[in-house]
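ok so I'm stuck.
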Amino acid sequence: MNFGGKRRVVLIDDSGALEPALGIVLQQAGCETQRAGGTVDVAEVCKFSPDAILVDLASGRGPDGLDAVRRLREMPDLNHVVIAGLTEPLAPSALEAARSAGCARLFFKPIDADEVAKFMLSIDRRRHVVNDWPVERERRATMDRG
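replied:
not stuck anymore, here's the structure
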């Protein structure tokens, strides 16, 4: 667990498409980042001792992102870690599935890297709790489409 210095963030992205831009913005915001591919090595994630994990929920290979989140949540060493999902806008039932799997927050594609960086800086390092679930944003988008 990292309570001092830089926030440590693992980015789980099997395509590698999100990491370059997102990694740079997170590093500029004072985060130390590590990328994990689509096949999540939970032991490696634990060794990095992250404050947060960003998971691309639309994995093209290996287990899907929600399965990865569930596996990460099963690890006692990661109980305190905030997990956020990166995804396309979802139906309300899919939002609940992400929350049930263990995501504390969702970011919708196209990802606003500055928004993600602000979120990382908002994590309460004493308790590793974030009460920030943007369901309202998805509800507004759903209402606009309907």
